[in-house]
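Long-time lurker. I teach an intro course on protein structure, and each term I like to show students one example going from raw sequence to a predicted 3D structure in token notation. This year I'd like something fresh instead of my usual example. Would anyone be willing to generate the tokens for the chain below so I can use it in lecture? Attribution to the forum is fine with me.
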Amino acid sequence: MKHRKLAFRYGLKTAIVGVGVMLASASPVMSSTDKVSQCNALAGVVNQAQAFMPVFESSLQTFIDDAEQVETLDDIKMAASDYVTAVDELVINLDTLAIELETVQLEDSQLIDYRSQYITLMEGLSGTLSDASDAMRIMQDVESEVDLPVKIEESQQLTNDAIQRMQDLSNQEATLISETNAYCGATGQ
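-- Reply from a regular --
Happy to contribute to a lecture. Here you go:
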């Protein structure tokens, strides 16, 4: 029986977390093929994140590189705009992934629960990243250099709050992965 690997990476640079789950095993209630199939179906949708995460990470690195070289207010606004665009695209991808997770056909009650938890996690990540985007939008919309100190402070506080929530979600994700690994009989990555 071929097993699929479940992988997902997300978040701000300081909170991007790698996730790997090898899904397979037998169940005393249903045939091992059914359980493996359902584990693989869940993994198949979550694996879609592998397509959009490298694009986001590349965009984020471009923002970081640009932000390190800002000299003028226009440079700050352009870097902020690049960040907002990258994060907003990731939010759309996470929202789409959550919707697609809802469509995964599962019969196993434990896998249904894990799917629900993944959906909740995706929705939490999406909301947190939207907040991070809004924080950076403050910098994108700053009108003058005189306003910068106040706007930087405001943006930084909102960003710090988003990072803390992202770290909390990362901890929830680690627990969910561990539980899914154990249930699906993963023995390693």
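Some talking points for your students: The first helix runs from residue 32 to 46. The helical segments are 32-46, 49-67, 73-103, 109-140, 148-184.
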